[in-house]
Amino acid sequence: MKSCVRYLSVQIITLGLLFSSENYLEPPKPKKETTTSKKEVKKTSAYLEKGEELKKKGKQLQAKALEVNRLKKQLQFMGHQKHHPAFGSTVAQYKKLVSQHEKEINEYKVQVGDLVGKMKRPFEKGSLSREEALLYGRQYLVLGKTTRMISVFKKVNADKGLAAAESSELAKAHNSLNEMDEATLVLQNALKQKLEFEKKSELQFMLAQNYFWLEKFKDSILILKELERFPETRTRASRFLISYTQAYAGYKTELGYRKKSKNLPRAEIKTNKGIVLLELFEDDAPNAVSNFIILAENKYFDRQKFHRVIPNFMAQGGDPNSKDSDPSNDGQGGPGYGIRTEISKRNHFRGVISYANAGKDTDGSQFFLTVIPTFWLNGKHAVFGRILEGVDVVDSLSKGDEINSVKILSKRDHPYQVKKL
Questions:
Q1: Of 32, 80, 259, 307, whose CB count within 10 A is highest?
Q2: Helix pair 130-142, 38-79: axis angle to 10 deg
Q3: Active-site entry in 240, 349, 368, 384
Q4: Residue range 106-126, pLDDT digits in tens
Q5: Torsion over CA: 377, 378, 384, 390 (sign)
Q6: Is 130 annotated as catalytic?
């Protein structure tokens, strides 16, 4: 399968949509004195006991969820190799295993849904304890409703405050939706608390990573230099500091290129989530840009889907197979020819467009839009443009979102031709 990198992303929990990030980690409000009956105590304990039971069961099912993903990938491969005589019995065995595992996972989710249903009204009435409310929020992650989990954690924070570990959970939930600004705010406010060194340093590492993702390289490097001072965090901080410092040097060089670039072609990707405006690097990757322009002008990309989206990484499109009703062939399509991988001085930062490939000189029509700096792709994939407006649109994309159209807004006054392999 074509892929922009050999990047394995096993998503056990499906994640949700955007939620407001205002007023995180405000000082907790004074807790009102309440009386709890014996009946309520028993009910309270029952929630936590059930939550612990489901937590153990969830851990047991994680391996099976991973196995389901692995088997589905194998079945997808076998589906493209139907002529192979050895696959017949194996396919049947794999399908049976997938069916069994998915049945167990779905039964588990039903139990989680039942617990959420029982806890919903007490939460809305404010009669759950702090621990119960957090348990209630976490169950929404299992159900793939990350936005709801975020709203529950926000309410718990406003009423009773969040500890460092819980702030970390909230930041991770935001990051899983590419809500990196919101996650950064959560971490910044959490670090205002008095914390033990171990808890504080973990939040600092997370914040340094988020600053890096948002291309706030100076802030990221400052945190890592601080962590490098301590024996407990020195090795880890030094490792990140090397790569982040190199990326920052490359970014400063990239800003210089952007100032010098003039009269470059522009394109507009219209999606169901909004519009992405691109500047195309014709001076650095002329054949890659010619290929994109000609395909766009022939309406090649129109009504395709983003068939591969990985949070904190990229969104990939450009496959004509994504237009059909068979998801198993997504990532396999192309224009019917290949072009050379046009490596140039332009590198992978947040908000660039680059060609996906299955190895050197196998570029075609599939492209990806980055949401973080992906320096490990430099020298392997052809960067041929950057996002001028709409990086927030790319942040919000999910697998299956549609490319309504790609239009070339401007180009240079000369014929565009593609050198094909």
A1: 307
A2: 20
A3: 368
A4: 999 999 999 999 999 999 999
A5: positive
A6: no
